[in-house]
Automatic annotation (TrEMBL):
Pfam families: NLPC_P60, SH3_16. This is C40 family peptidase. Belongs to the peptidase C40 family. The keyword Iron-sulfur does not apply. It comes from Carboxylicivirga mesophila. SUPFAM superfamilies: Cysteine proteinases. Transmembrane segments: none annotated. Residues 1-18 form the signal peptide. InterPro entries: NLP_P60_dom, Papain-like_cys_pep_sf, Peptidase_C40, SH3_16. Keywords: Hydrolase, Protease, Signal, Thiol protease. Residues 235-359 form the NlpC/P60 domain. PANTHER family: MUREIN DD-ENDOPEPTIDASE MEPH-RELATED.
Length: 359
C-alpha cells in the first residue's frame, strides 16, 4: 500500500513538473511575441491569459495588434490544441468607433473609474479612436497613440461618415484661454489653448462656432486662427516656440496634465509644439526616441531642443524641458519656470544639470 502511494505521489509530481515546464515555455512565447509587437504598453495592448481545460489550451484576452495574435496562436498551436478567445481591439460590435472631445479637457485614466490615476488629458476638439467600452467609460486612443480610459460624458461619438464630415469641416485653433458665449453673453463652455472648433460663420470681430456635441456660440476672432492639416508642416521658429512657452509661465504642475490649466513636464512640451503645428509623443521617455540626438554640451544646443533628464545610472528618462537659449531651459517642475545649466546663474539647477541625460 505504501509502495502504491509512493508511486502515485511520484506520478503527480512528474505531471505537475511537466505542466510547469509547459507553462514556462508558453510564458516565454507570450513574452517574445509581446516584446516584438508591443514594446510600449502605453500605445498598444497585449493582455493574454492561458487556461487549460480538458486537454485544450484556451487563449483569451485582447490586443490591438492582429499580427501579434496571429503569431502567438501559430507558435502555441505547434504543441497544443487551441481555443481562440483572444479579441483584437477595437471591438467590432461598436457602431461609433470615433469620438471627439467636447469639453475643454477630458481626463484620461488608467482604469475606468474616477478614482483611478490620471495619466493624460485630451482637449476640446481632439479626435480619439474607441477601442472598447465598459459602463459609462471608453478605452480610447488619442492622436499621440496613448491608450487610456475616459468618461463618456466628455465625448461626442461618431460613425465613419460623421467623423469624415467633422474632419473635412472648416475649423479654427484656439490661441488663448477664454469662453464660448451665446448671443446673450452667457457662458456655453470654457476654452483652453489648442482647442479645435468647427466654424459656422465668420463675422467682423467674432467667429460663430459649433462644438462636437452640437452646442454653439461665438468667440472673439483675435483668439483663434484657421486650422489646416493640408500641405507641408510649418517651419519651427525659435522665437515663436519661446513666445508660446512663456505664456504658460507659473502654471501649476499636474501629473497627467496636458492643458493650459495645469501641465506635467511632457504635457507642457506637447502644448508648445502642438500650437506650433507638431504632435509630440505623450511621455518624456517616448519623446526622447524622436528627432536627432544632440551632444550633451550647452554650446551644441539650439532654441527649441528638448532636454531630457533622469537617473544617470539606469539612463531612465523621467523629465523633459525645452532649451530657450543663453544656457536656459523652460520646464514644468512644481510650476512652469526657467532654469539655467550655468552654475554661475541665480536660476542654476544643479539637480537638473547632474541628471541631464540627452537632448
Amino acid at each position: 500500500m505504501k509502495k502504491n502511494l509512493l508511486l502515485l505521489s511520484l506520478a503527480v509530481i512528474v505531471l505537475l513538473y511537466a505542466c510547469e515546464k509547459a507553462t514556462v515555455k508558453q510564458g516565454l512565447i507570450i513574452e517574445q511575441v509581446e516584446a516584438k509587437w508591443v514594446p510600449d504598453s502605453r500605445v498598444d495592448v497585449f493582455d493574454v491569459e492561458l487556461v487549460y481545460s480538458q486537454g485544450t489550451l484556451l487563449v483569451k484576452g485582447e490586443t490591438t495588434i492582429a499580427e501579434a495574435k496571429d503569431e502567438l496562436l501559430a507558435k502555441l498551436g505547434q504543441t497544443d490544441k487551441l481555443i481562440d478567445s483572444l479579441v483584437v481591439l477595437p471591438i467590432s460590435s461598436i457602431e461609433k468607433k470615433w469620438a471627439v472631445t467636447t469639453l475643454s479637457l477630458a481626463n484620461l485614466r488608467d482604469e475606468p473609474k474616477h478614482s483611478a490615476q490620471l495619466v493624460s488629458q485630451t482637449i476640446m476638439g481632439t479626435p480619439v479612436r474607441i477601442l472598447k467600452q465598459k459602463g459609462g467609460w471608453s478605452l480610447v486612443q488619442s492622436p499621440d497613440g496613448y491608450i487610456a480610459w475616459t468618461n463618456n460624458s466628455s465625448l461626442a461619438f461618431m460613425n465613419e461618415a460623421e467623423f469624415d464630415a467633422w474632419r473635412s469641416a472648416k475649423r479654427v485653433l484656439v490661441l488663448s484661454d477664454g469662453w464660448l458665449e451665446d448671443g446673450f453673453g452667457h457662458h456655453v463652455s470654457d476654452l483652453v489653448k489648442g482647442s479645435l472648433l468647427t466654424v459656422v460663420e465668420k463675422q467682423k470681430d467674432k467667429v460663430i462656432i459649433t462644438l462636437p456635441d452640437g452646442r454653439s456660440g461665438s468667440v472673439e476672432s483675435d483668439i483663434v486662427r484657421e486650422f489646416d492639416m493640408t500641405g507641408d508642416l510649418p517651419a519651427l521658429k525659435g522665437e515663436k516656440l519661446i513666445e508660446v512657452s512663456k505664456e504658460f509661465m507659473g502654471l501649476p504642475y499636474l501629473w497627467g496634465g496636458t492643458s493650459s490649466k495645469a501641465v506635467d513636464c511632457s504635457g507642457f512640451l506637447k502644448n508648445i509644439y502642438f500650437l506650433n503645428g507638431y504632435i509630440l509623443a505623450r511621455d518624456a521617455s517616448q519623446q526622447i526616441k524622436y528627432g536627432q540626438p544632440v551632444p550633451l554640451q550647452v554650446e551644441a544646443l539650439q532654441v527649441g531642443d528638448l532636454l531630457f533628464f533622469g537617473d544617470a545610472e539606469s539612463k531612465k528618462v523621467t523629465h523633459v524641458g525645452m532649451y530657450i537659449g543663453d544656457t536656459e531651459f523652460i520646464h514644468s517642475s512644481g510650476r512652469v519656470k526657467v532654469n539655467s545649466l550655468d552654475e554661475t546663474r541665480e536660476n542654476y539647477s544643479g539637480y537638473r544639470r547632474a541628471s541631464w541625460l540627452g537632448a
